[in-house]
């Protein structure tokens, strides 16, 4: 998968994603940074262009294969003080999941989650206007 985002401040973005991905970019140029990750398999680039940053587009995320991997990533995110929210045993998007959320410097929400099982309902919390995560 490849994604590309416009960002307001590239240096601030690089500092955040170095912590979140526990990795440094493979390429940096003026106004540009690119990460290539093995786990999750992702190529993501950032282009500094404050005028093109779009708020509230939704969220990004990735599923990890094991609870151990989720806990390892959560521990690293906690150490870097970037965790916004933790949800354990939540029913979101019709699935029971353990997850945590981070927000990048431009407010892009990232969800890292471990999938337990499908369920037949969403937590009603996610249907309210105050919901800040999950499918809403």
Question: Count of DSSP helices?
Answer: 2
Give the mean pLDDT.
89
**Residue share in helix:** 10-25%
State Rg.
15 Å
Report the CATH C-level class.
Alpha Beta
Share in β-strands? 35-45%
Low-confidence stretches: none
Outline type: globular
Identify the CATH homologous superfamily.
2,3-Dihydroxybiphenyl 1,2-Dioxygenase, domain 1
Q: Quote the CATH topology.
A: 2,3-Dihydroxybiphenyl 1,2-Dioxygenase, domain 1
Strand order of the largest sheet: 1-4-3-2
- How many β-strands, per DSSP? 8
Q: What structural class do the secondary elements suggest?
A: alpha/beta
Report the CATH architecture.
Answer: Roll
End-to-end distance, in Å?
23 Å
Number of domains as seen in the coordinates: 1
Tell me the series of helices and strands, N- to C-terminal: EHEEEEHEEE
The largest pleated sheet is described as:
4 strands, mixed
């Amino acid at each position: 998968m490849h994604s590309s985002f416009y960002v307001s401040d590239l240096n601030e973005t690089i500092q955040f994603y170095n912590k979140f991905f526990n990795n440094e970019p493979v390429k940096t140029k003026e106004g540009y940074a690119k990460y290539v990750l093995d786990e999750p398999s992702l190529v993501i680039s950032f282009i500094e262009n404050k005028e093109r940053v779009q708020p509230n587009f939704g969220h990004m995320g990735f599923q990890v294969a094991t609870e151990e991997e989720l806990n390892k990533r959560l521990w690293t995110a906690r150490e870097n003080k970037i965790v916004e929210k933790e949800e354990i045993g939540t029913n979101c998007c019709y699935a029971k999941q353990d997850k945590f959320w981070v927000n990048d410097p431009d407010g892009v929400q990232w969800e890292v989650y471990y999938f337990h099982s499908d369920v037949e309902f969403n937590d009603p919390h996610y249907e309210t206007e105050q919901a800040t995560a999950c499918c809403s």
